[in-house]
Amino acid sequence: MPVWLREYSWRQTGSAVYLSLPLRGLRVTPANIFCTDQYLKVSIPPFLFEAILYAPIDDTNSTAKIGNGIIFFTLYKKEVAMWESLTLANANKEKLQSLRENAVLKAHEKAKEETEAKKVTKQEHKKYALEATMKLEEAERKRIEDLKEKERQKVTKELELWRKQQKDAEKQKRIQKEGELHEKVEQLKENKKEKINKTSIPDEGTSKTRLKATKGHGSYGMFSENLKEEQLPAPRSAATIKINFTSRVFPTALRESRIAEEEEWLRKQAEARRTISADLSELEDLKEDEKNPDWLKDKGNKMFATGNYLAAVNAYNLAVRLNNKLPLLYLNRAACHLKLRNLHKAIEDSSKALELLTPLVPDNENARVKAYVRRGTAFCQLELYTEGLQDYEAALKIDPKNRTIEKDAEKIRHLIQGTTQDS
């Protein structure tokens, strides 16, 4: 049974209420204080202070200072007025219970909204970082393309100049060859005329000599001397021609590929690799088996069995970063948080496990029962018995033959009834 704290002092102004709650010899943390716009609760087991405020306050700007065995609250009123008392007077138990439950629901909704807002902000930051990275990459790609274009233009100009020089050299050689050929033709004509003149009036001796000469191997015709004067071109020299092919990531030939689609695919792959390396850059020193979520889960289970809950939480944290779609990782981490009294984290992990345990099939009934029981246990340890009872009843719907869960649910009902009677 809780021990109610009755000693307190308060004073007020038109816009604020100042409440002093003495807690000598007790260790108080912000987790022990729960405050909404019309409900204030300080729970330090077995001591309890609870107040349904006379009028709504601004719980966002209100503060609580802890020190020297005293909690000093500064509660700012939503409307400027003087209160007749600190708490709401002449209120029956049903109304007080209703106000208490509404306060808890509002706190849950507010926490959920803050979580969603943080998630949206984080997504916006990631989106901004991605857009900035894409802009930088686009600028770098454009700079590289400009450099390539300048280099291509430079090479094109040099190639055109070389071709022009080659054409001029070939033209010069052709003109020179034509001149040499013309000279040879003229010389042949002159030699022919001289021979005709010599053979036009032959004498007897010369004719015999010529006839004899034609019978031997040393005979020659009219153009024999011209043939001797002609020189054949030298044979072409042998050489090796090297061919370099452009390197490609894809196995298809360039003429059969779609360059735009390939570049888009490569860009997306590079972005994915950069994202993974940025998120898991600190995992580079780990071994390959240590980067396996299943191996890390088994490691965390062994640590939990030996009572080393902090080490087990670290193993589950790393496994979740590698694969955040395994519900058993969140379920096991919730059990560690319960042992370490991290009750809010246990509730978050159990809720995440229930989200991932879909669809509702017989194979995951055991895991869903564990998730409801662990979340309900965390709620009860936070003295939120109504929420805890709801989770235990949800577990009983899945496994109605579980006597242990049924006994625990009955105990919670008795606690709720006792708290209602005391209030």
From TrEMBL:
Molecular function, one GO term: nuclear estrogen receptor binding
Disordered as annotated region, ranges: 199-220
GO CC list: dynein axonemal particle; extracellular region; neuron projection; nucleus
UniProt-annotated location(s): Cell projection, Neuron projection; Dynein axonemal particle; Nucleus
UniProt entry tagged with the keyword Coiled coil: yes
GO biological process, alphabetically ordered: determination of left/right symmetry; epithelial cilium movement involved in extracellular fluid movement; heart development; inner dynein arm assembly; nervous system development; outer dynein arm assembly
Family annotation (Gene3D superfamilies): 2.60.40.790, Tetratricopeptide repeat domain
Sequence ranges assigned to domain CS in this UniProt record: 3-87
SMART domains: TPR
PROSITE patterns given in the database record: CS, TPR
InterPro entries (alphabetical): CS_dom (IPR007052), CS_DYX1C1 (IPR037894), Dynein_assembly_factor_4 (IPR052004), HSP20-like_chaperone (IPR008978), TPR-like_helical_dom_sf (IPR011990), TPR_rpt (IPR019734)
Coiled coil spans: 105-198
TPR-type repeats, residues: 369-402
Keywords associated with the record: Cell projection, Coiled coil, Cytoplasm, Neurogenesis, Nucleus, Repeat, TPR repeat
Name the UniProt record assigns to this protein: Dynein axonemal assembly factor 4
